[in-house]
């Protein structure tokens, strides 16, 4: 990873430096870990299961599709010879169903704990939000918010349970950028699945876009305080990847461009999951491109095989977050910090007295 000296605020929020993708990681670091994945029966999830089971992890797959989940687990056990791959039925929109999944994962874990939780479950589909019906109907139809329920509420349930179970992982210690992934497989890691729709609008899919924006906000909020529980949090933001979630209509709309590949998403997720030194980072995964980065940070396409360029499908989003955030936010926060410094300890003491007085019922409107 990049030198931490360039990113001093990372120390204060327990965030590691931007990921140096040229530095290799070893999937063998997964051996002995217990990993829980929601929505693991197909798409990215199935790719994660195959890769991680092949490298010796215990993988517990939670999914609402029993037929696909059972078939995947049987296939992976046969392919890898790893019998520690399990399927548990789970509806992520149901609190008790998720509780049951986590309890079962702990029971199935060889060491009685969970090292990584992957909040992977997600759906897309027809979104009625902007289609309230014909103008001649008397009553507005109730919208179907299933996409929000799965992609946001389900993720919040998973996150809440992760922060309950991960700190209780036997043999684990607080996350640390100086961790050695080669010597201790015990971990406390939450991996969130966002999307390119976390970073940009997505036409005709407002629920999906809203949910994935919310996942980004969740990530940016909890990564700055998750060190309290010793949990490291990372985020994946895939572009349109060649999986069943990309519908025929979406493929037609994207014609002429390119879809990303599942194996590149699996690669990014495996790096996060295997390397316990990575805290609070996010990676965008798209189609492989041959690119060169300019001095101003912009990427330009170059000819394939050009010595000036590099082929990559993975980029870091918010690489300098907390150092070089959006201009307005940076300016506003800078002004507020300057004001706080100018007021000094006298201002702090005045505010504390005011806060205590408010708690006692004084100065309330």
From TrEMBL:
- What Pfam families does the record tag this protein with? adh_short
Keyword annotations = NADP, Oxidoreductase
GO molecular-function terms, A-Z:
oxidoreductase activity
Please name the SUPFAM superfamilies in this protein's record: NAD(P)-binding Rossmann-fold domains
Give the superkingdom in one word.
Eukaryota
Give the protein family: Belongs to the short-chain dehydrogenases/reductases (SDR) family.
UniProt-recorded name of the protein: NAD(P)-binding protein
Q: Which organism is it from?
A: Glonium stellatum
């Amino acid at each position: 990873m990049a030198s931490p000296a360039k990113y001093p605020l990372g120390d204060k929020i327990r965030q590691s430096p931007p990921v140096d993708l040229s530095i290799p990681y070893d999937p063998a670091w997964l051996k002995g870990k217990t990993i829980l994945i929601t929505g693991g029966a197909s798409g990215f999830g199935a790719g994660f299961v195959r890769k991680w089971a092949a490298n010796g992890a215990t993988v517990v797959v939670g999914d609402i599709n029993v037929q696909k989940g059972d078939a995947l687990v049987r296939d992976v056990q046969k392919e890898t010879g790893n019998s520690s791959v399990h399927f548990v039925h789970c509806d992520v929109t149901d609190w008790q169903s998720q509780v049951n999944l986590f309890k079962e994962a702990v029971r199935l874990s060889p060491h009685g704990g969970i090292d990584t939780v992957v909040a992977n479950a997600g759906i897309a589909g027809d979104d009625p939000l902007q289609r309230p019906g014909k103008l001649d109907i008397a009553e507005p139809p109730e919208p179907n918010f299933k996409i929000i329920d799965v992609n946001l509420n389900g993720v919040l349930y998973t996150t809440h349970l992760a922060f309950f179970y991960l700190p209780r992982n036997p043999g684990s210690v607080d996350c640390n950028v100086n961790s050695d992934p080669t010597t201790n497989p015990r971990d406390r890691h939450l991996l969130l699945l966002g999307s390119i729709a976390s970073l940009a609008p997505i036409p005709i899919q407002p629920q999906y876009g809203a949910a994935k924006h919310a996942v980004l906000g969740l990530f940016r909020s909890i990564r700055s305080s998750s060190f309290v529980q010793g949990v490291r949090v990372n985020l994946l933001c895939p572009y349109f990847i060649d999986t069943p979630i990309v519908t025929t209509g979406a493929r037609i709309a994207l014609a002429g461009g390119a879809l990303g590949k599942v194996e590149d998403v699996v690669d990014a997720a495996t790096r996060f999951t295997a390397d316990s030194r990575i805290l609070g980072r996010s990676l965008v995964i798209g189609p492989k491109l041959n690119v060169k980065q300019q001095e101003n940070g912009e990427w330009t396409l170059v000819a394939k095989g050009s010595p000036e360029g590099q082929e990559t499908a993975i980029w870091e989003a918010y690489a300098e977050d907390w150092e070089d955030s959006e201009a307005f936010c940076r300016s506003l926060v800078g002004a507020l910090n300057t004001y706080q410094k100018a007021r000094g300890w006298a201002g702090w003491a005045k505010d504390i007295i005011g806060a205590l007085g408010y708690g006692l019922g004084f100065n309330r409107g």
